[in-house]
């Protein structure tokens, strides 16, 4: 919880010596921050933009055991991922939720159905849960009546999990703060500071909050960890590290649930290059992705939101049309788009999808870099990183690697009666121990949905007041996801958003107008079909497909 005045207070504390500085506020940095704060270290996390504004709000939102690692016979990685998935499902209920996967089996597909089925046997054995099954053609046609039928033979059903990636990052960081550590967004590391031996011993940061422009600080710590995702090379170059990463862009399209109504994930093979594709329900909309291409032609600093190009729109629409030919989806049906950049190690593969997505640790002149890996395994990555810096922290307690990943959720919660069942669980998952505060004093109107999205007005108010929002896009794209799941970036709701957020954020009219204009431009540039302004994104068309049975 970031109370009013928190930024000035945090900046005033930067003169002290920290045990650890974590650079980067994505899931990797958040996990390290959380685990180190739990061990009683004095930790500072600095993020150049908003928390989770990098890849960690732009993933496919799947918390998965890594079925694809089995194709490389990497049982260890699959086992670790499966265990982390199970841990997150148990401890993050409402935020990490189980979801059924249906993978289609078409004659001629690679891998063939029997091989995929074999992989699922191993997958379930590693999780010690027997939950997959083959679905015969007749049942597939009944459950998914709008799938292409030509060559369809049946499919396989299994379980993984999904989350709201940006909320997961925020919850992990917020829980670390409660242990007395400091997390600052909009604080960019400009330069690494070195001691006489040339070992990195601190960072020079600049404030990017409009209220603190010009403010800078030099902060020192016993250990410095570089968790800047696909931007790690930029900081590594300051200690002589050569470029090691390849930035690969992955883009998604969002459709309204009325146009692609799904209750679980549908996986299939892209007809053009045979890559696996997935489409699934998320936050009341339907996601479809993803692409995997070199991110070279756009500005690629952490301050720029990546955008998909027209070739990616064509690729994704080709996939949509191939799997759901009867839905007759067109570009007008696209609610929003978003792109993320995968930090992968460059081994010079011609096919980007063949590059390894493993986690790596590099220690260069006292700067420990942690990158690669997955959202799912962030806790394991955090412990590996902390083990690597342990020798610089004499006298500090050992890290306990078997503690909870998320704090205990409240058992008995006194929430407004209207919040029951799944909706209640969702709120507890998103806000953890703070959930009662989010809804204290809420009236019935505060619990209504924002324009049909899953978020309600009470959440928007809470986020504006207590969740370190600096710009309007922090609020509408990451604290709440209405910028992605409502048409036109949620701008149809902007009057009501303003009525709540402007005073909560203490913005005068000029600041509000500037924020709104910047948000509108951002939606047009990075979250819409290229070349189409947000005004041209039409309201979703009515569903033309039959009802599905779950
Ligand atoms: P980031 O989230 O990118 O965070 C790095 C942060 O560092 C950024 O916020 C950036 O602003 C900050 N930064 C950069 N430079 C500086 C500086 N100088 N000073 C301060 N801060 C700085 N994983 C899964 O488990 N499941 C999935 O379904 C999945 N799907 C994916 C789909 C796509 C398209 C992509 C791109 C990734 C996917 N992943 C998935 C992988 C996962 O999203 C990433 O591994 C993870 O988010 C990386 O987190 P990170 O914290 O290392 O990097």
Characterization of the model:
48% of the residues are buried. Strand 9 and strand 10 form a beta hairpin. The longest helix has 18 residues, at 509-526. The chain has helices at residues 6-12, 27-38, 67-71, 75-91, 113-127, 137-143, 165-177, 232-236, 310-323, 378-389, 421-431, 435-439, 457-466, 472-479, 482-485, 494-505, 509-526, and strands spanning 18-23, 43-46, 62-63, 96-106, 133-136, 152-163, 182-184, 187-194, 200-207, 216-226, 245-256, 265-269, 276-282, 285-289, 293-294, 334-345, 360-364, 367-371. Strands 3, 4, 5, 6, 11, 12, 13, 14, 15 and 16 form a 10-stranded mixed sheet that branches. Strands 1, 2, 7, 8, 9, 10, 17 and 18 form an 8-stranded mixed sheet that branches. It is an alpha+beta fold. The site of flavin-adenine dinucleotide has 40 residues, from helix 2, strand 8 and strand 16.
What's the topology here?
Elements: H1 6-12, E1 18-23, H2 27-38, E2 43-46, E3 62-63, H3 67-71, H4 75-91, E4 96-106, H5 113-127, E5 133-136, H6 137-143, E6 152-163, H7 165-177, E7 182-184, E8 187-194, E9 200-207, E10 216-226, H8 232-236, E11 245-256, E12 265-269, E13 276-282, E14 285-289, E15 293-294, H9 310-323, E16 334-345, E17 360-364, E18 367-371, H10 378-389, H11 421-431, H12 435-439, H13 457-466, H14 472-479, H15 482-485, H16 494-505, H17 509-526
Parallel strand pairs: 1-2, 1-10, 2-7, 4-12, 10-18
Antiparallel strand pairs: 3-6, 4-6, 5-6, 8-9, 9-10, 11-14, 11-15, 11-16, 12-13, 13-14, 17-18
Helix pairs in contact: 2-7, 2-10, 13-16
The structure holds flavin-adenine dinucleotide.
């Amino acid at each position: 919880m970031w109370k009013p005045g928190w930024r000035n207070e945090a900046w005033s504390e930067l003169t002290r010596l920290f045990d650890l500085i974590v650079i980067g506020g994505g899931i990797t940095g958040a996990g390290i921050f959380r685990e180190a704060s739990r061990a009683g270290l004095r930790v500072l996390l600095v993020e150049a933009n908003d928390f989770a504004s990098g890849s960690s709000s732009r993933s496919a939102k799947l918390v998965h055991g890594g079925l694809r690692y089995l194709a490389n016979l990497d049982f260890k990685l699959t086992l670790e991922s499966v265990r982390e998935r199970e841990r997150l499902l148990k401890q993050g209920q409402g935020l990490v939720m189980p979801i059924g996967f249906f993978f289609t089996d078409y004659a001629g597909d690679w891998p063939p159905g029997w091989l995929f089925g074999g992989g699922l046997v191993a997958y379930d054995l590693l999780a010690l849960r027997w939950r997959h099954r083959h679905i015969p053609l007749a049942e597939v046609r009944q459950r998914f009546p709008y799938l292409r039928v030509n060559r369809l033979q049946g499919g396989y059903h299994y379980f993984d999990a999904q989350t709201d990636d940006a909320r997961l990052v925020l919850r992990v960081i917020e829980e670390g703060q409660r242990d007395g550590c400091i997390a600052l967004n909009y604080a960019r590391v400009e330069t690494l500071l070195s001691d006489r031996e040339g070992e990195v011993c601190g960072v020079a940061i600049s404030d990017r909050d409009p209220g603190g422009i010009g403010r800078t600080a030099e902060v020192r710590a016993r250990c410095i960890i570089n968790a800047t995702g696909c931007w790690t090379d930029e900081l590594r170059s300051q200690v002589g590290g050569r470029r090691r990463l390849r930035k690969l862009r992955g883009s998604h399209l969002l459709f309204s649930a009325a146009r692609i109504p799904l209750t679980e994930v549908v996986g299939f093979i892209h007809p053009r290059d045979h890559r696996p594709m997935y489409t699934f329900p998320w936050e009341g909309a339907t996601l479809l992705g993803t692409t995997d291409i070199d991110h070279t032609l756009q500005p690629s600093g952490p301050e720029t939101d990546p955008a998909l190009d027209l070739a990616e729109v064509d690729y994704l629409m080709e996939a949509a049309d191939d799997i759901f030919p009867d839905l007759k989806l067109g570009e007008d049906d696209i609610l929003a788009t978003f792109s993320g950049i995968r930090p992968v190690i460059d081994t010079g593969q011609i096919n980007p999808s063949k590059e390894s997505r493993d986690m790596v640790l590099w220690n260069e002149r006292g700067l420990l870099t942690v990158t690669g890996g997955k959202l799912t395994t962030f806790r394991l990555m955090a412990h590996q990183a902390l083990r690597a810096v342990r020798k610089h922290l004499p006298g500090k307690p050992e890290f306990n690697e078997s503690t909870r990943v998320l704090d205990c959720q409240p058992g008995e919660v006194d929430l407004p009666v209207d919040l029951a069942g799944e909706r209640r669980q969702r709120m507890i998952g998103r806000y953890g121990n703070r959930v009662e505060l989010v809804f204290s004093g809420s009236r019935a109107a505060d619990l209504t949905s924002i324009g049909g999205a899953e978020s309600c007005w009470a959440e928007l108010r809470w986020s504006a007041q207590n969740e370190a929002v600096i710009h309007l896009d922090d609020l509408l794209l990451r604290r709440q996801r209405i910028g992605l799941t409502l048409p036109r970036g949620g701008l149809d709701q902007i009057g009501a958003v303003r009525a709540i957020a402007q005073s909560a954020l203490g913005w005068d009219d000029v600041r509000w107008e500037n924020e709104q204009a910047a948000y509108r431009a951002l939606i047009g540039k990075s979250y819409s079909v290229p070349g189409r302004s947000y005004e041209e994104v039409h309201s979703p068309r009515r569903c033309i497909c039959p009802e599905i049975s779950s």
